[in-house]
Specification:
By secondary structure, the protein is an all-alpha fold. The protein is about 95% helix and about 0% strand. It is built from 2 helices and no strands. Helix 1 packs antiparallel against helix 2. It starts with a helix and ends with a helix.
Length: about 150
Amino acid sequence: MDLYIQISIIVITVAIVILMYFLIQTMKVLKAALEEVRLTVGELRSDVSQISVDVKEMIHNTNEMTLDVRTKLRSLDILFTTVNDVGQAVHSFTTVMKESAASLVTTIKGKEQHEVYDSVPVHSHKTKTISAVTDGIMSSIRIWRKLKNN
């Protein structure tokens, strides 16, 4: 029986030695993996620091660009307001010119009818028409100068 116990102890010892060998091999692989993880984390920290600096710079540039765009849009607001004012002035001017032209045509037609009935020479009628057109043009120029000064 002593022999069986000694053989059992030897088998158990060999089994423990083999187990310890594989355990040591596993520990070596685990140590290498942990070293790899440590190096990767170190690289990751430096990369994140660099990316952080780049992102901060990009945000700063984006903020500057946003302010620049806002300033330029404000300048365009003034331009669009001015264009709107000019458009309204031109619209008013054309409305006045249409009304003046309509009243001029009405006046000329009325004068033609009176001239036909009153036997006024045609040459006098042409002089009056030219005078009315000249007055309309002069009025238009005065209105344009007033609108331009405002």
